[in-house]
Design brief:
The protein is mainly alpha-helical. The protein has eleven helices and three strands, in the order H-H-H-H-H-H-H-E-H-H-E-E-H-H. It has a three-stranded antiparallel β-sheet.
């Protein structure tokens, strides 16, 4: 049986029910019995565990677990990084302060990938950074034709297909399957926040270049109607010069010392 393609792109993600079980197991293994019903071997409650199970907690442990599930977008590595950040917290106040921040482990994952992208040939690097910046502007990514047009505006014109854009991004961008034309999106929505918050200078510079204002030369509206064209007649414009005062010239020259006749 002959397959007429070179490779197949398959997006893998952990189902929500399995991810919830993993999150509950990790939380109770670290902080004791939190009422999540996991099969983890539960130690005595940690300071954070005690805070989460008291009646004074503003958010229940289930809501914190749901946040980790929601903001992981099916990626087990991202979920693990968010769990690690929670494990480091000692109080609810510190947890709430950092709830909207990217965990340091996620930043390290993205930074490491960007370093590999920046180490490529200059042409591949520029394509990857610009493509990532353009795709991160929208939750559903950007269509390949629109992206190629943006790259051409930056002088990156030797791009023949979407595959030539995907390859240098090293897995940070993925192609949709059902869209026509296909779209390129970030592999995980956390990358959008990473780009928006300017965590990496190189990709921030690419975003600025994409959105830089361009010179536009548009026809001007002329209020006055043009004069009639007369191809067979030469017309001169009359220039208004100030008149030179005319003096009456004498017909003879008066010599010095000459007396007038009486």
């Amino acid at each position: 049986l002959y397959e007429h393609y070179d490779h197949v792109n398959i997006r893998l993600s952990v189902p929500d029910y399995a991810m919830k079980k993993f999150i509950a197991w990790s939380l109770e293994r670290e902080h004791g019995d939190l009422g999540l019903g996991s099969a983890a071997r539960k130690p005595p409650p940690s300071p954070l565990g005690r805070s989460l199970t008291t009646g004074t907690a503003t958010r229940s442990i289930e809501k914190h677990a749901d946040d980790i599930l929601e903001f992981s977008y099916g990626h087990i590595g991202i979920a693990k990084a968010r769990l690690d950040m929670l494990h480091e917290m000692e109080s609810l106040e510190k947890l709430e302060m950092r709830r909207d921040q990217l965990p340091a482990n996620i930043i390290m994952i993205f930074d490491g990938g960007l370093r590999r992208i920046e180490a490529q040939y200059i042409s591949h690097r520029d394509i990857a950074l610009a493509a990532m910046a353009a795709s991160a502007e929208f939750d559903d990514g950007i269509s390949i034709p629109d992206l190629r047009a943006k790259l051409e505006d930056l002088g990156l014109i030797a791009i023949r297909s979407g595959e030539e854009i995907l390859e240098p991004t090293r897995g940070f961008l993925v192609a949709t399957i059902r869209d026509n034309p296909q779209r390129l999106t970030v592999f995980n929505q956390n990358l959008i926040y990473y780009v928006e918050q300017k965590y990496r200078r190189a990709i921030h510079r690419a975003s600025i270049q994409l959105n830089a204002p361009k010179a536009r030369f548009e026809p001007q509206n002329i209020a006055e109607a043009p004069t009639a064209v007369t191809p067979h007649k030469i017309s001169r414009s009359v220039t208004g010069l100030p008149q030179v005062p005319e003096h009456t010239h004498q017909a003879y020259i008066i010599r010095k010392g000459t007396r007038a006749w009486a």
